[in-house]
Specification:
The protein is of the alpha+beta class. The chain has twelve helices and four strands; from the N terminus they run αβαβαββααααααααα. A four-stranded mixed β-sheet has the order 2-1-3-4.
C-alpha cells in the first residue's frame, strides 16, 4: 500500500528499516523507550534499528520528521512490520505499544486488571504531572535567556512536590508497607510505570536540586539506585545512544 510518511529528505536509515525503528536522542524522554527496548531485548531478543537526531539543530522540526510526529518531539517509534508503517508518538503511548506488541508474558506489565490500572495511573501521573514540571525547571533554571525567579521557584517547588508523591508511594507512608517499585501488589514489580518515570527523576542533580533538598525522599533515592543497576537500563542510557560525532 502506498503511503506518504516518507519523502526524499527522510533519512535512509528510516526508510530502509524493515522492523521496529526508533528515532531518538538520549534525553530523559528518549531514554524511556531506549530502556524499554533494551529490556525487551534481554527477555525476548527483540530487535530494532535506530536513527539519531540532534534536537539542538531542530532536525525534529523538519517536514520529514513532522510527517511521523506532527508535534516535532523525540522519540518516535515506527513499526515497519505494518503496511503502511505505523508511527507512534508520545513516550507513554510508545511504552504501551511495545508492551502489547513485544511483551507477550507481561514481564513489564500486568495481567491482573487492578495491577495494570496501577501501572497506568503511575505512568500517566509522571507523564502529566512530573515530566512537565521538571522539564520547565530545567528550562528556566538552565536554558532561559532571562532568569525569572517566580518561574524557577514555581516549577522547582512543583517538581519537589511530585517527588514527594512518589516518596509517599514508595515509602508506604499510608499503607505501612514500603515498596520497591511503583505498581503491583506487595513491594511491587518493575514495570512500564518505573521505566516511564525513572529517566527524569534520576536527573535531579542536573535539574539543580541539592542533596539537602533530596533528603526528604530516601525511598525515592533508593528506587533510583535500584533501577540504575539493571543491565538494560545501563545500556539504554549509555554510550550506545550517544550522538554520532
Amino acid at each position: 500500500m502506498a503511503h506518504n510518511l516518507y519523502i526524499d529528505e527522510t533519512p535512509e536509515s528510516v526508510t530502509n528499516s524493515k522492523g521496529l525503528h526508533l528515532i531518538t536522542q538520549s534525553t530523559p524522554n528518549g531514554q524511556k523507550v531506549q530502556i524499554m527496548l533494551e529490556e525487551l531485548a534481554d527477555v525476548y531478543g527483540t530487535t530494532w534499528d535506530t536513527t539519531f537526531v540532534n534536537i539542538g539543530t531542530n532536525e525534529q522540526k523538519k517536514e520529514w520528521f513532522l510527517r511521523l510526529n506532527p508535534n516535532g518531539r523525540i522519540p518516535v517509534l515506527i513499526d515497519n512490520h505494518q503496511s503502511p508503517p505505523f508511527p507512534v508518538m508520545e513516550t507513554s503511548a510508545e511504552l504501551l505499544y511495545l508492551l502489547k506488541l513485544a511483551d507477550k508474558n507481561d514481564v513489564f506489565g500486568f495481567k491482573d486488571e487492578f495491577e495494570r490500572s496501577e501501572a497506568l495511573q503511575w505512568l500517566f501521573f509522571w507523564h502529566g504531572s512530573g515530566a512537565p514540571y521538571q522539564g520547565q525547571t530545567n528550562h528556566f533554571n538552565k536554558f532561559a535567556k532571562e532568569k525569572i525567579p517566580y518561574a524557577i521557584d514555581r516549577f522547582k517547588n512543583e517538581t519537589l512536590r511530585v517527588y514527594g508523591v512518589l516518596e509517599i508511594r514508595l515509602s508506604g507512608k499510608y499503607t505501612g508497607e514500603p515498596r520497591e517499585y511503583l505498581a503491583g501488589t506487595g513491594k511491587g514489580k518493575y514495570s512500564i510505570a518505573d521505566i516511564g518515570t525513572w529517566p527524569w527523576v534520576k536527573g535531579w542533580s542536573f535539574t539543580g536540586f541539592t542533596e539537602e533538598e533530596m533528603k526528604p525522599f530516601p525511598h525515592l533515592l533508593k528506587w533510583i539506585d535500584r533501577i540504575a543497576e539493571r543491565p538494560a537500563v545501563k545500556r539504554g542510557t549509555g554510550e550506545k545512544y550517544s550522538l554520532p560525532k
